[in-house]
TrEMBL record:
GO terms for molecular function: G-rich strand telomeric DNA binding; telomerase inhibitor activity. GO terms for cellular component: nuclear telomere cap complex. Signal peptide: none annotated. Its main location: nucleus. It comes from Ustilaginoidea virens (Rice false smut fungus). This is Protection of telomeres protein 1 ssDNA-binding domain-containing protein. The lineage of its organism: Eukaryota, Fungi, Dikarya, Ascomycota, Pezizomycotina. Residues 254-281 form a coiled coil. Residues 107-273 form the Protection of telomeres protein 1 ssDNA-binding domain. Residues 46-65, 285-350, 523-553 are annotated as: Disordered. Belongs to the telombin family.
Length: 605
């Protein structure tokens, strides 16, 4: 390396310009020439500065500066503001620090208070923009005892709201779920507060959940509660000004992907497998009725054991109730056969079951009603319409339409997960700090495309009044809900005739001959409409076009789709919105109300 003094000027020939970590730099090679001009010998502007050129320590110089370049050296030196040049002592410190190259990379399990580290982690929760800063939640799927412990709550209800054991509100018949932690459970996640210019970079690049980030010079210290470690990205000034210490990492292929990223992906894959096994065990225990108070996180101390007197009173009351029921059954035996519970359609499809059958039903009309939040502004009571509410409902409905149009398209390739772990599938790979080269793990990697369910159903309210217009809505059916509904795993239905046949049989139990009706409806539709995409309307409140024509064809064909009980969840998604008047989600976006099917199953024979 050439010995450069403070204030010297440098001419570089044959170097490559590169941009790394948001900063430009020069990369030298074997033909690069670095020429140094002694600042104490540079003449006045406009004069030849060749006499200030120091002798090179290289035996051979490929390029010597010409007269014009030597004159420009003096002009450049004369135009420099000498007050911005560091002092000799400051320059020597900077020079020593530049030689002190040490490995700052650290996995999150090894971080401690007071450390400044570089790390690679995944964004596990949507970033929170507070205006002057952005908060990230990241994980590299290692555990640290000083991180906050995120527990699995199973979707418990919001504290303070009166709900039953299933989380349903007894007042309105809907469920207000608690905001469940979306990242890895346990002490695997770190909260990071990012100030400018890093916050601006996060907004500009739109880093969202699922993005892998390379974080540099991350400060780790205790948070405000003084109990858990948190991270901070503050303004970092270098020689070239502000530095951006957050950038996205891509898993492109096994050769170019960083070893640290591949190790993190491997840990994520192992964690997801562990999480699925644990959730499966919890579900099995709940189904078998094996849950204990400690498993659900409930305070067992609140349930007081009854004393002897209370037991005698309870037994006496139970005997009296049984006697009354026996007498009532004898008197009303003849009339009970003709009675139908209130609100249940007479032609209810009993081959379709749903969760929480003892909960009251909510009509689709009530589900679609807007919800208002009452607030006091300047002393006046104001009702603010909410774009959506997080709520679960149980209702009676029938399927009147479905998307996509063909059952073969009800399943699609799950390419994202396969692509994410594709960099780990090379045979013979042996990265440090990993044991992924085992034969069992290689078999676990997806050799081909995996498939998932993804379709939508249009549900119509099961109103008994044929003359009255029945409201309807579109519900999305994701892979998990579809597996419960159909009791089938997704596959390539265009090449899996057996699974396609089973799917058609299960859906016939759900909607009767609706498939034949929709094919007839498509044949009668104009050519322009047939060429449209197989997607439901953008908004679940949109009833679509030509409803009257569809109902007429339905009456003509006599479609045999009976109503059934099902569970519907309401939620919101953020979509792009160019109209500032409708952009209620901020940042050029708005909230769009959506509905999804869950907890419903076709009981196939």
């Amino acid at each position: 390396m050439p010995d450069v003094k403070c204030g010297d000027l440098v001419i570089v020939f044959g170097a490559k310009v590169q941009c790394y970590e948001s900063a430009f730099s020069l990369c030298t090679n074997k033909v690069t020439d670095v020429l140094i001009y002694d600042s104490t010998k540079i003449p006045k502007p406009g004069n030849d500065a060749s006499r200030a050129l120091r002798p090179s320590n290289r035996s051979r110089i490929g390029r010597q500066p010409n007269k014009t370049e030597n004159e420009f050296v003096s002009i450049l030196y004369g135009s420099i503001n000498k007050e911005k040049v560091p002092t000799e002592s400051e320059f020597e410190i900077m020079k020593m620090n530049s030689k002190n190259v040490k490995k700052k990379f650290s996995e999150l399990k090894d971080v401690r208070e007071g450390m400044f580290i570089n790390t690679i982690a995944e964004v596990v929760k949507e970033p929170y923009d507070a205006g002057d800063k952005v908060t990230l939640w990241v994980s590299d799927y290692t555990e640290n005892d000083q991180f906050y412990h995120h527990k699995f709550t199973g979707g418990a209800s919001v504290g303070g709201q009166k709900t039953d054991s299933h989380g349903y509100s007894k007042k309105v018949g809907s469920w207000q779920p608690k905001s469940e932690w979306a990242g890895p459970f346990g002490k695997r996640s770190l909260q990071i507060t990012c100030f400018d210019p890093h916050a601006s970079a996060i907004r500009e690049h739109n880093f969202t959940k699922g993005t892998w980030l390379f974080l540099r010079n991350l400060q780790v210290k205790l948070g405000r509660d003084l109990n858990n470690l948190e991270g901070y990205l503050r303004e970092d000034r270098g020689v070239q000004g502000q530095k951006i210490n957050v950038s996205e990492e891509h898993a492109v292929d096994s050769e170019t992907t960083k070893t640290e990223l591949k190790n993190a992906l491997r840990r994520k894959r192992d964690y997801e497998k562990l999480r699925k096994d644990q959730l499966r065990a919890i579900t099995a225990a709940a189904t078998a009725g094996l849950k204990r108070p400690g498993d659900t996180g409930l305070d067992a101390g609140r349930a007081k054991m009854p004393n002897s007197k209370a037991k005698r009173n309870a037994n006496r009351a139970a005997k009296q109730q049984a006697y009354k029921q026996k007498r009532g059954q004898q008197n009303d035996a003849s009339s009970s056969e003709d009675m139908v519970p209130t609100g249940v359609p007479k032609d209810l499809n009993t081959q379709v079951k749903c969760e929480n059958a003892n909960q009251p039903t909510t009509s689709i009309t009530d589900i679609l009603k807007p919800v208002f939040h009452e607030a006091t502004i300047d002393g006046d009571e104001v009702k603010i319409p909410l774009p959506f509410v997080n709520a679960n409902h149980r209702t009676h409905a029938r399927v009147v339409e479905f998307m996509p149009r063909k059952l073969e398209d009800f399943a699609r390739p799950r390419t994202q997960a396969a692509a994410e772990y594709a960099v780990l599938s090379d045979a013979g790979e042996s990265d440090s700090d990993s044991s992924c080269g085992s034969e069992s793990e290689q078999k676990a990697l997806p050799a081909a495309k995996s498939w998932e369910w993804r379709f939508s159903l249009k549900l119509e309210d099961a109103s008994p009044d044929e003359q009255q217009a029945r409201p309807s809505l579109w519900v999305a059916v994701d892979n998990q809900s579809a597996q419960m509904l159909l009791n089938l795993d997704a596959s390539d239905l265009r090449n899996d005739d057996e699974n396609l046949g089973q799917l058609r049989q299960r859906l016939f139990l759900l909607w009767g001959d609706l498939e034949e009706y929709q094919i007839t409806l498509e044949d009668q539709a104009p050519v322009g409409r047939r060429r449209g995409d197989d997607r439901p309307p953008a908004d679940s409140d949109d009833e679509g076009e030509a409803q009257s024509r569809a109902k007429a064809v339905r009456r003509q064909l006599g479609v045999s789709n009976r109503p059934f009980a099902c569970c519907i969840r309401q939620y919101g998604v953020r979509v792009k919105e160019d109209d500032e008047g409708r952009a209620d989600a901020g940042g050029g976006g708005r909230w769009q109300r959506m509905f999804g099917l869950f907890g419903t199953r076709i009981c196939a024979p």
